[in-house]
Amino acid sequence: MTDFDIIGGQHEDPASIAFRDLLFLMVFSLVVVIFLLTFLINPVPKPDDVPLRTQILIEATWPSGTAYDVDLWGMGPDGIPVGWGIYEAGPALNLERDDRGKINDLSELNYEWMSIRTRDAGEYVVNIHLYNEYKEPLPVPVKVRVTGKGDIGEIYESEILLKRRKEEVTVVRFTLDQDGKVVEDSVHDLHRSILSER
Ligand SMILES: [Ca+2]
Hints:
Elements lengths: L2 H8 L3 H28 L14 E7 L6 E7 L5 E2 L5 E2 L3 E5 L12 E7 L5 E11 L7 E9 L4 E10 L5 E9 L22
Antiparallel strand pairs: 1-6, 1-8, 2-3, 2-7, 4-5, 5-6, 7-10, 8-9
The chain binds calcium ion.
């Protein structure tokens, strides 16, 4: 019996050790590659895919299946009106979904929403406007809700009646402080037209 046989008998064949090490390296490399691929396949989304980083959500809903074209209008601290045709101002305010009642709309839902993506300090104004009732009876009830993420919570929720075509109602105004919190007692609905400032 040679030394080699003893070694071979008591230990594994060097070739199989080498093979096992190689196999281990391959599996390890594969795990590393899969790990890296997970990041490559799920990278930070491209701008178009970015989930909406909404800090404050402004929603308007009116009766499903009706033809009323109600518009949400908003204005942030930069004083730039945002609404139909003017979809965003600064990084703060965006009209995310316009709903024209039955026009270009396969859904029965009548729902518009705006987002405030950064809580810039200053006053925000939220208005609704009846662009056209399209022969539907008046008034039209519009539910409006303004909800902030996390500690902000609900800022406003109520139903407003729009009584005539082109009527613009100030739903709610509120002010955010430097920390992005709603200033106490800043919530009110004193009329301020946004459409006239376009
Ligand atoms: Ca609309």
